[in-house]
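> tool_call: predict_assembly(chains=two)
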Amino acid sequence: MLRCACLLVAAVVCGLGAPRPAHALGERDKLAIAQVAYPGNWNPRATGTRRLAWELEKRTAIEVVREPVEVRLSDEATLRQHPFLYLAGQSALPSFDDADVARLRRHLQAGGFLVVDGAEARPGGDFDRSVRALLARLFPREPLQRIAPEHVIYKSYYLLKAPVGRLAVVPYLEGVTHDGRLVIVYSQNDLGGAWARDNFGQWEHEVLPGGDAQREMAFRLGINLAMYALCLDYKTDQVHVPFILRRRQWQSK
Amino acid sequence: VNAAATYDEWHLVSLAPWGRLGQSLAIVCACVIIVFAYKALAAEERASRRWILLGLRLGAVTAALVLFFEPAMRLQNVTRVPNHVAVLVDVSESMRIAEHAGEPARAERARSWLAAQKAAFEQIGREHVLDWYTYGSRLEPTTGEALLAAAPARAEATRTREALAALRGRYDGRDLAGVIVVGDGADNGRFAAAFDAEAGDFLRALDAPVHTAWVGKPGLTDVAIARVLADDFAFVRTSVTIEAVVRVVGRGPGWEGKTLPVVLRRDGVPVKVAEVTVEPGRTDYKVAFSFTPERVGKYLYEIATPLLPGEAIVENNARTFLLKVIRDKIRVLQVTGRPSWDVRFLRGLLKHDPNVDLIAFYILRTPTYLDLVPSEELSLIPFPTEELFEEQLRSFDLVFLQNFNYGPYGIGAYLGEIKKYVDEGGGLAMIGGELSFTSGGWSKTPVADVLPVELYDGGGPAEKLIDPAPFRMQLTPEGRAHPLTALKLDLAQNKARWAELPELNGTNVVVRARPGATVLGVHPTRKDADGKPLPVLTVSEAGKGRVLALTSDDSWRWGFADRAGDERGRAYQRFWEAAMRWLIRDPALSFLRIETDQPEYGRGQKVQVTVRALGTDYQPLAGVKLDVSVARIPTLLDVSGAARPEPIASKSGATDEAGELTFELGAAPALGPGGYRITARATLSGRPAEEDEVFLVRGAGKELEEPEARDDLWKAIAAASGGSYRGVGEGLGELKLWPPRVVRVNQHRDVEVWSRWWMLLLAAGCLSVNWALRRRWGYA
């Protein structure tokens, strides 16, 4: 702890001396959360990803594009600019045509990452069924599976015990693993609902049953997802293991 | 036949020209006739008549057979051929040993013994043919005179059993009366490995008695590095243990209780020291050296112990061997200033490569942000600055500084270490971003000194240090053929492939490429301080290391956004894999190469050296002026005690059409035992290039590792083969030798047995009497 604090203080002091760049090499290299648009209510939590981007910038070293980006699966040129995709919905997704599905598959295979967020928060509901149907078309040989609690996604930045959103109806995340990495993460707890905050600084939705503490956990999960997208399994490297193990033990005590 | 006066041997032969088939048919016919005759007489009740008739028919058939076979008596005049006695004299290296100073060596004693037994050998020579041989590594015929004049004791091994087996092969089908072996019994062939029942069977199967004459002497005092247990290769940064056996034979003045240093040296430089204390009655002392090779390459190692007073042999106090240090995996350190797509894709590539051992440190949190979340709820760990940049840095083959600014993390004090790491042969890649190059505060640092691009002196608006406009990197003429940018083998296809890769977003702005650096990729529009296209991808040699500068953090798009046909995403992988290989000096990518036709040589063998020069496109480069020098790596036992390699040869010349310069070493004078380093220097594409290679000339090897003369082996050989043993001072005396078994026919004559009148009369008589009796006794 002491070493950590000293480093941090030293970091701040030293950081003042170094040239401070005004911006990154290009806006396109920042992390943009590109939300998949489709016919229907594709953006049920309109301010959610903007707030997550703000929190990411505030809490981590990740450089983000604060304004959400809209992307359509038919628009390959835009897809190529944005590896991180966010697909949300409250009701059944439309039936994407085969070309769109193939484009999305190529995108994910090439290194992209997709977060699917169910604002419906009802397992077995219309959105849930349509998501499962879409994912089965995307990766027929790599089925959607529960993500084990030991997965790096629960420790990529914060040490998390359970995935929660606006609600906590499903105590796990599901995902599709391709070539050794998660390419799709599916949450049914309405993450966007917990993140959403209006321009006057008010939270748009009440978080149940955990209130603000649960909202914080939802942000932490969002940050972990972004961190996983950019660092993959970095936190499984051997050097991190003793630290994480020690902190997990502290948490359980 | 009265031929006793002329002929001394006779035997029967057949003169019939019918061949084996005809003779066989005749015998079959005779048997059939006899069987039918017997059956025809079965009805005869009176046995006397039956046997008389059968006897007459048998007589007739026998007479007919004699006529058919035409037998003759062969009379011969023969002479007994003298058989061979083989004399084998050991000419191995151990025969040069004199057990005590001032005494004759074993080879000299062998010569004296042979000379003293001259009369005995002459006596043997009257009844047998004396064949003289030398043996060591192999059996070679010689003459008695040559052996007496001077038998050079230079063979690198004593393989007595192998020599006897070769001897038996030479006398296959010839009469061998016996074998006489003269030597010190210091065998290191199959007899030394095991003299067991099978060895006894082998000696008996020689079918000739082996008489042994021992010319050794007890009382040898010597210290030897008797055995070294080391693999031919080791893995870099992986602990290696080399074991050696120090053999102390006999005791010289003051040896008892003395502590001997045993030194392991690499290319003449001490690496480790072990100690051995001479204890009463103990001969073998095992020592082990554990060390960790830090760099890939071929090295000459030596284990040596100093000479003690009264030692019989000098050369065996040191053993040299080659150790090739290879990579198990490429050890890579990836340090990044913030998570990004560039970080993610490079990590994905490195983690996927089974040949890469990745150690990564990413700054996940902005140093200026003070999170209220307790650190126990975060997975962050402290940056192990000291461990990484001081203790472990040299363990890496390659360091990626990816969009990383050293300032906030207390690394400033270690930047000199990074420069030193590169100078000593490490690979460094600085990848762009707003935290890299000038905007990362790297100006005027030791790291900037090794970068292939010059940086602005810091300060000033960041906008001047970064150009955010998208651009497509263009290859320079050097970049079109360089292995690092070779996405395609065909140069035109490679150029086209780069032209279709996705654009990069923005670039760090640098002053210019450093003199001597190679610019492989440039900005299409922006210029450097000299008005030349702004370098984007630049490489250079720095000390023994190599450095790459890519002033963009967007190369990941060559993997993610490149959707060109079947090549989807492969450009990124190929580019960075080639970059890694180049940065770690993969030997396959070296511009100057040295090859010897063998890694190790025996004494007196010639060494063929080939130096190859390649251009930046890795095609042979003709007409390149090369300066090649060869130096002997000094050993601990060198009388001069020179610590520096001693030059022994040099060669200057230009490469031929194949880009090669070939020459030979060791023709005159022959190279002495030890290690040699060949160093080639040239200027290739305007840059100085240097490469080296080592080779080893073996010394006496096994011969001097276990130099004690063994009379027990000589006695065992003699006993097992039915021969006899002669010790020091004993003459040849009476030897058991097989008598000659081979005869030579000088003259012969065939006396026909069949062409006699009585033979014809016998046949006719038998048939006539048989006919007459049959008539008389009422047969049809």
